[in-house]
Amino acid sequence: MNEVFRSAANEARQKLPKLTSNQEAARAYRKSLKILSSWAIDREIFLEEAEIIRARFDAERGCQPAKAVRLIKEAKKELHYYTHPDPYCVAFMPGGTLFMRNPPIPMEVCFPDGDLPSDAPKITFNPDMSVSKKETGKSAVGSVLIDFTKKNME
């Protein structure tokens, strides 16, 4: 690719929002709990470790902005280090053990003549079993791409 195309592509990309240090700390805390849920299989162990993580975050609350930037960088490195190689996901979501185990049968198969009963469901479901709505951006109409490496639906 030439330089002109790269610069045009960079202009078209959506810019990430600039987060405050409080927002970054909240995201780091939430991500640390999600990573912890992949490692801790017992609820008691999870709660004990979650208290330790919360104490670490509370100990540095209200620090100077320069120290906050350094702590957030260290937190990101630590989160990367402790990331589970096969993270936990909800069983019926992409990558889970129940994903698409019993998908609903299409109405066209059940009623090939098109004569639907009055009590037939009028809603469609996405592969993650959420209700398909145009306004949410997730629509089951057409093909749906499931990325099993990232364990999400695009």
Task: Describe this structure as you would to a colleague.
With 154 residues, this protein is mainly alpha-helical. It folds into two domains: 19-82; 90-148, no CATH class. It is 44% helix and 3% strand. It has five helices and two strands; from the N terminus they run αααααββ. It has a two-stranded antiparallel ribbon with strand order 1-2. Helix 2 (21-39) runs antiparallel to helix 3 (43-59) and helix 2 (21-39) packs parallel to helix 4 (65-82). The longest helix is centred in the N-terminal third of the chain and has 19 residues, at 21-39. It is extended, with a radius of gyration of 22 Å. The protein starts with a helix and ends with a strand.
Task: Quickly describe the structure.
This protein has 154 residues and is mostly helical. It has two domains: 19-82; 90-148, no CATH class. The chain is built from five helices and two strands, in the order αααααββ.
Q: Taking Cα atoms only, what radius of gyration do you get, to the nearest Å?
A: 22 Å
The figure for the number of domains is 2
Quaternary: single chain
What are the segments in which pLDDT stays under 50 over at least 5 consecutive residues? Answer: none
Question: End-to-end span in angstroms?
Answer: 27 Å
Biggest beta sheet summary: 2 strands, antiparallel
Shape: extended
Average pLDDT metric:
82
Structural class category: mainly alpha
Order of helices and strands: HHHHHEE
Strand content: under 5%
Treating each run of at least 4 consecutive H or I residues as one helix, how many helices? 5
